[in-house]
């Protein structure tokens, strides 16, 4: 499959009074994406924290999040059913998950195939508030998922700020990186956005960036959100002007849809104006010979 249509969800966090209201919101978005013949739908990081509006918000946030994490099987069931019903791939953003020991908390992205089968990529780098306030445990493994339209990697928010991960995914054949994010201010959003675009240039691939928008003042964990979904490309002649295939209007509920031409990635890696993925082998060798040169006076 040389082309794939993707839908990046700019997800609006609104108060819900029942789990079914959450299901109605995500189902409507998936149904809309399917109506536009999208083959891959991507939700943002931590969008399931919307369900904290069903909890006792007076409790400490880490306790609330752990309660939500124990509800992960129901969320997985919901998205598996949606993937089967509409016959498409879904990256269900991320949700907190409790390990079998009922103590270890992780941040997981579930990737569903059209059959409802799924695989999981865990977040590998924790932001300070995840590590220091929520005590979220990082994962240790990067995965590359083989799909009907080629290989895909998932780098969750902060993970996309580490170029080594995207470079390894590209070397393993990934043409698409999915970057679900959740950022509370413009500074955080731009860190993810700029790094996501850098990964496109460095590795000659597409990045699908999603984010949460809206405000839930009653839930401190996601009281503020700054987001803008986008489909980013390398910066070379065959691709979009400015390396932006499509992007949403910041902080508005929306869906960004675009067609990825995967043959362009293959052509770019072989015949592009520059060949950064190929030439990265030399940069690694040169970096290993780094020297400290004193010019103190």
Structural account:
This protein has about 300 residues and is α/β, with parallel strands linked by helices. It has one domain: Carbon-nitrogen hydrolase (Nitrilase/N-carbamoyl-D-aminoacid amidohydrolase, 4-Layer Sandwich), CATH 3.60.110. The chain is about 35% helix and about 25% strand. The protein is built from 8 helices and 13 strands. It has helices at about 20-35, 60-70, 70-85, 130-135, 165-170, 185-205, 260-270, 275-290, and strands at about 5-10, 40, 90, 95-100, 105-110, 120, 145, 150-155, 175-180, 205-215, 230, 245, 255-260. Strands 1, 2, 3, 4, 5, 6, 7, 8, 9, 10, 11, 12 and 13 form a 13-stranded mixed β-sheet that branches. Helix 6 links the parallel strand 9 and strand 10. Helix 5 packs parallel to helix 6. The longest helix is centred in the middle third of the chain and has 18 residues, at about 185-205. The termini are far apart. The mean pLDDT is about 95.
Annotate the secondary structure layout.
Elements: E1 3-12, H1 19-35, E2 40-42, H2 61-69, H3 72-86, E3 89-91, E4 95-98, E5 105-112, E6 118-122, H4 128-134, E7 144-147, E8 150-154, H5 163-171, E9 174-180, H6 186-203, E10 206-213, E11 230-232, E12 244-247, E13 254-261, H7 262-271, H8 276-288
Parallel strand pairs: 1-2, 1-10, 2-3, 8-9, 9-10
Antiparallel strand pairs: 1-13, 3-5, 4-5, 5-6, 7-8, 10-11, 11-12
Helix pairs in contact: 5-6
């Amino acid at each position: 499959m040389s082309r794939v249509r993707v839908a990046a969800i700019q997800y609006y966090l609104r108060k819900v009074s029942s789990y079914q209201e959450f299901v109605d919101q995500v189902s409507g978005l998936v149904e809309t994406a399917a109506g536009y013949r999208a083959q891959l739908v991507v939700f943002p990081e931590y969008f399931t924290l919307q369900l904290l509006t069903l909890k006792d918000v007076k409790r400490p946030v880490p306790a609330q999040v752990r309660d939500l994490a124990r509800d992960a099987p129901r969320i997985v069931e919901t998205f598996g059913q949606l993937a089967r019903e509409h016959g498409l791939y879904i990256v269900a953003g991320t949700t907190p998950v409790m390990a079998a020991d009922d103590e270890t908390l992780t941040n997981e992205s579930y990737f569903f195939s059209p059959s409802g089968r799924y695989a999981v990529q865990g977040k590998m780098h924790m932001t300070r508030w995840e590590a220091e306030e929520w005590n979220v445990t990082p994962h240790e493994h990067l995965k590359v998922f083989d799909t009907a339209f080629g290989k895909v990697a998932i780098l969750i928010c902060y993970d996309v700020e580490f170029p080594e991960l995207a470079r390894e995914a590209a070397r393993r054949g990934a043409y698409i990186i999915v970057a679900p994010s959740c950022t509370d201010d413009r500074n955080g959003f731009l860190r993810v956005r700029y790094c996501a675009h850098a990964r496109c240039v460095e590795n000659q691939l597409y990045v699908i960036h999603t984010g949460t928008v809206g405000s839930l003042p009653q839930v401190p964990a996601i009281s503020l959100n700054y987001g803008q979904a986008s489909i980013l490309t390398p910066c070379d002649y065959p691709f979009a002007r400015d390396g932006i295939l499509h992007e949403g209007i910041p902080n508005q509920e929306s869906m960004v849809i675009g067609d990825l031409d995967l043959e362009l990635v293959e052509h770019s890696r072989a015949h592009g104006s520059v060949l950064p993925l190929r030439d990265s082998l030399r940069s690694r060798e040169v970096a290993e010979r780094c020297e400290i040169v004193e010019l103190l006076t």
